[in-house]
Write a structure and sequence with these properties.
The protein is of the alpha+beta class and about 575 residues long. Among the domains are: about 145-230; about 245-315 and about 330-335, no CATH class; about 355-530 and about 545-565, P-loop containing nucleotide triphosphate hydrolases (Rossmann fold, 3-Layer(aba) Sandwich), CATH 3.40.50.300. The protein is built from 18 helices and 19 strands. A 5-stranded antiparallel beta sheet has the order 3-9-5-6-4. The protein has a 5-stranded antiparallel beta sheet with strand order 10-14-12-13-11. The chain is globular and about 125 Å long. It starts with a helix and ends in a 13-residue tail after the last helix.
Amino acid sequence: MAKAFFRLQKFLRRTQFLLFFLTAAYLMAGSLLLLQRTRLVIQQGSRGTPSNQALPVLDEMTRVGIIDPRTLQSPRPGPRLLVGMDALQEPALDQRHSPHWLTSRNSELRQLRRRWFHRFTSDQEPLQTAGLKAMKHTTEHKGTYMGCFTHDSRERTLKGAVFYDLRKMTVAHCQEACAERAYSYAGLAYGAECYCGNALPAAASKPEECNSECKGEKGSVCGGVNRLSVYRAEELRAGARRWRNVIYRGCFRAPENLTDTFPASLIQPNLTVEMCSEFCSKKEFPLAVIRGQECYCGYPTGRFPLRDGADGLRCSGTRNASSAAEGKYCLVYQTPVQDTRCTDRKFLSTKSKVFVALSSFPGAGNTWARHLIEHATGYYTGSYYFDGALYNKGFKGEKDHWRSRRTICVKTHESGKTEIEMFDSAILLIRNPYKSLMAEFNRKYAGHLGYATDRNWKSKEWPDFVNSYASWWASHVLEWLKYGKRLLIVHYEDLKQSLIPKLKEMVAFLNVTVTEDRLLCVENNRDGNFKRSGAKQKNFEPFTQEMKDLINRYILTVDEALRGRNFSGLPREYVPR
C-alpha cells in the first residue's frame, strides 16, 4: 500500500512539473505573438492608421450597408452580402436561375473584407497638421501656386468644371484636367475636389488654413475645409490640345436675335474656329457659334436647343469660318469648357417618403442613368452596394446607407422577392441582352472604362459567363414585373436615342420639377465620366449559334411578359433575326 502511494506521489510531482512547463511555454508563445501584432499595428500607425481603428471598421461597414458583389473576381450574380460584426451572411439563391460557380465563397468573403478594409482605411487616414508646415506646393506638378482662398460650394468663385477623386487626387491631375478644358486656374479643396476657372477668387485666406493633404500625393496641399489651394493651370503647347478638344456639333438655323440669345460675342475679320473657341473658352462658355465674321458664346437653351440640325451644305466651308453662310444658319462647336448649370448636387434635406429603386441587370447602363438623374434633379443617387470606383469619381451617395432615404433613388441589381418588396416604386432599366452581356464582361475584366482582351473573349470563361448571366437577365425583368409595386419601364436604347423626352418621364416619376435649361445642360454633358474609350475589341462574332438560341428564347419570354402587363414590348432590335 505504501509502495503504491509512493508511486502516485512521484507521478503527481512529475505531472505538476510538466503542467508548469507547458504553462510557461504557452505564456512565452503568447508574448511573442503579442509583440508581433504590436509591431504590425505600429507599422500601420506609421502610415496614418491608428491602432484603435481596427475594431470600429466593422461598425462602419455595418453603417455603410452592402458592398457590390460584382467587385469580386468571381462573377456570381445576385447575392446580397451583408457586412456585420460577427459574420458575412448570404441568403440562399433561387436554384432555378443561379449559376454554378467554382470559386469558394469563403475565399470571396476574405477578398471582400480585405478590399473594403483597405479602401476604408485609405480614405480615413488622419492628417498630421504638424507635418503640413513642411509641405511643398510644387512637387511634381507644374504651374505657379497662387495662394489659399475662401471657398463656398454654393457660391463658387471658380465656376468652371468640377472633378472628384477621393483616393488619388493630386495637384498635377487637377491642373491637367483644368488645362485640357482651357481654364487658367485650378483650385483644390478637402484634399480631393478640383475646381476650374478663369478668374482668381476675391477673398484670400491665411496660408495655414489650407491644411488638407492631397489624397494621392503626400506632401502637397489640396486646400482645406471651405478653403481652396489655387494653382495656375499648366500651359498647353501651341494650343494644340485645346484645338483637339473642340468638337463640331453641326450646322443649325440661327435664332432670330443672336445678341439676346448669347451673352458674349466677338466680331473679328478672318475669324477662324480656333479664334472663336478660345474666346468662348476664356469666357467660360461651352458653345462657340460662328456666323460669318461673328462669334457668339453661350449655352444650349430653349431658344437654341441644338436638336434639329440643318444640312451641312447650308453652312459651307467648315474649315474657314468666314465662308459660312451668313444670315439664317450658323456653325456650332463644343468648347473644352464644361456646362456647369447642372453639376451642383446634394442629398435630400428631408427623408424621402417614397422609396424608389433604379433597377437593372448589370451592364444595362445603370451608372449612366444615375449620372443623368443626378444632374437633372440635383440630388445624389444611392446604391444597394458600395463601389469605391464610383464613389471616388463623385457618386457620393455610394457611401450613404442605402436605406437612409436621403437620395433620390437607389441603384440595385437584386431580383429577389424580399428585396423588390422593400421598395415603393422602381425605374426598371432594360437593355438588349447581347449588349448588356458584353458590357458586363468588359467591366469584369477591364473595369468601368476598359475593354476585355481578345484572349478573354476566346477563353472558356466567356461561354460560361453567357450561360450563367443570360438567365439572370431574363429572371431580373420577370421578378420585378411580378413583385414590383409601381414600375416605370425605360429601355436603354430609347433613352439614348430620345434623351430629353425619356429623362422628363424619369424625373416626373421621381416627383421632381426641373427647368428646360437644366435638361439641356444634362444633354450637353450626357456622357459623364464612365463612357468607355480606347481600343475596342476586334471585329468578330463573340456569340455562337448555341448562345444566340439561348438568348433569343429569353428575349421572347421577356417580351411576352411585358406585353402581358400592358407595357410596350421590347424594341425591335431585340427581336431575334
